[in-house]
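Structure (tokenized):
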């Protein structure tokens, strides 16, 4: 599955360096479409609202902290209801599909898409696609109504089922066309959004009046541009339970060590935030921050020092951390799952055994190590209160955008305002913890752990940032996107 071509990107420029990275609209390839009054204006629930509709020119700035000499920078189209819509309620035939791994809040998003379509726009035909992308052509569909989805937000997982892979663009587009579906809501992570982008391109190529809208789902919080992904708050909250259990175990026995492995294949956001929230962690290891085991300043030396000081300690490690060390001692494989994610070795078990072996060999002190892996317990929980509210806003924003004729977009908050973001922006890179940023410094201060970085590593990180800054100031590509291939820096500037 390849990412969609960006030949049809919509870049609008203005004075003072204003750049709007707009999302596609049905009228881009189907001219003279009729419009209809938005049913919301007659909805009694909205009668108290001072302003029903979002101004068509409203945009949201990607960066809100700027210098006085800075250009206005990149903006995205603001999400929300429009005065005119491009679908009559009785003509809408929507479908919802969930793909990839589980995440708290998926059922809430499904529920709120269904209820939003029904109660805000009077849409009565909504289908659930059973079993991910392959469900379009290999499985049955489920009819969704407010009654059938009423209580699903109280359950973890997804009532529609999910799968990885199974993306056959032609078969999916054929199914959408044959069933008369004209709004497709796709809930999933970066691989799913890439698939959604390809489906949109095929729909556009066929000239169909079909909206493709994405709702980004990743428990790791590694989707770029948006403030955070849904389910992340719930995951952090649940991760604290595992950390607390590890702390109780470690603190109840002499030289106790609690090791907790959390999710974070490429990005250590859950581990970092759970560590900051719990206050019981002595060391947090994430993929973005290299570490080493033996020698001066290494992990083993720090563990020994902390045990002598406190008599116990808790280590949190993200699943993607230390994979380069692990591959040196265990035969590494380059196998991938059906979504294209590299299959990782279990770093939690590996590091637990390494710690045990080190202290057994040193004969300095007897340790008692307990290893906790709550990964699938965290993924399977229902979303908490804050995520439920967030999922509602995501779902309603997607519905408003689809009814207004926008397509080929994903929805999410940018600086606290929900926006429509073109697929290519959420597919171009992963969001990662910046270890030269204040948040990571706060964690180091909280745990009092070493950074495990040499002076050379810090110098290289700063040099990469300086290269990005210099590139931002001096160069731009034809569509306003800046790319430094050497440092893999992607950013934006004014034209």
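Design, position by position:
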């Amino acid at each position: 599955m390849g990412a969609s071509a960006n030949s049809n990107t919509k870049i609008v420029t203005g004075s003072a360096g204003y750049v709007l990275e707009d999302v596609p609209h049905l009228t881009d390839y189907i001219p003279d479409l009729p419009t209809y009054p938005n049913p919301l204006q007659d909805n009694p629930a909205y009668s108290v609202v001072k302003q029903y509709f979002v101004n068509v020119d409203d945009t949201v700035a990607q960066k809100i902290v700027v210098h006085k000499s800075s250009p206005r920078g990149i903006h995205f189209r603001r999400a929300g209801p429009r005065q005119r819509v491009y679908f009559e309620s009785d003509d809408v035939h929507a479908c919802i599909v969930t793909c990839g791994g589980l995440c708290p809040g998926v059922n809430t998003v499904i529920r709120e898409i269904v209820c939003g379509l029904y109660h805000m726009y009077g849409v009565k035909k909504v289908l659930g696609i059973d079993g991910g992308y392959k469900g379009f052509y290999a499985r049955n569909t489920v009819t969704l109504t407010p009654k059938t989805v009423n209580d699903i937000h109280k359950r973890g997982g997804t009532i529609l089922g999910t799968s990885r892979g199974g993306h056959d663009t032609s078969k999916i587009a054929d199914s959408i066309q044959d069933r008369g579906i004209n709004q497709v809501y796709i809930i999933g992570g970066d691989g799913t959004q890439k698939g959604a982008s390809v489906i949109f391109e095929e729909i556009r190529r066929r000239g169909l009046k079909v909206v493709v809208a994405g709702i980004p789902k990743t428990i790791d919080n590694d989707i770029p541009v948006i403030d955070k992904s849904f389910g992340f708050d719930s995951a952090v909250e649940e991760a604290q339970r595992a950390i607390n259990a590890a702390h109780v175990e470690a603190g109840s026995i002499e030289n106790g060590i609690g090791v907790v492995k959390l999710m974070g294949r490429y990005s250590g956001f859950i581990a970092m935030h759970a560590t900051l929230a719990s206050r019981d962690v002595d060391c947090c290891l994430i993929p973005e921050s290299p570490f080493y085991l033996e020698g001066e300043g290494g992990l083993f030396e720090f563990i020994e020092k902390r045990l002598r000081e406190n008599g116990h300690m808790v280590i949190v490690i993200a699943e993607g951390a230390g994979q380069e060390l692990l591959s040196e001692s265990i035969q590494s494989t380059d196998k991938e799952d059906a979504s294209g994610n590299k299959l990782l070795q279990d770093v939690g078990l590996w590091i637990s055994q390494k710690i045990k072996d080190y202290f057994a060999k040193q004969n300095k002190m007897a340790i008692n190590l307990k290893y906790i892996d709550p990964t699938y317990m965290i993924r399977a929980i229902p979303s908490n209160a804050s995520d439920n509210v967030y999922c509602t806003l995501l779902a309603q924003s997607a519905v408003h955008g689809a009814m207004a004729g926008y397509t080929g977009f994903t929805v999410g908050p940018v600086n606290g305002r929900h926006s429509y973001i073109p697929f290519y922006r959420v597919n171009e890179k992963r969001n990662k913890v910046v270890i030269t940023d204040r948040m990571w410094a706060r964690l180091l201060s909280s745990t009092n752990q070493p950074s495990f970085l040499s002076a050379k590593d810090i110098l290289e990180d700063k040099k990469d940032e300086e290269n990005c800054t210099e590139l931002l100031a001096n160069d731009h590509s034809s569509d306003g996107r800046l790319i430094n291939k050497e440092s893999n820096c992607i950013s934006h500037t004014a034209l």
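Reviewer-requested clarification: Confidence is low (pLDDT under 50) at residues 1-7, 469-495. The first helix runs from residue 106 to 121.
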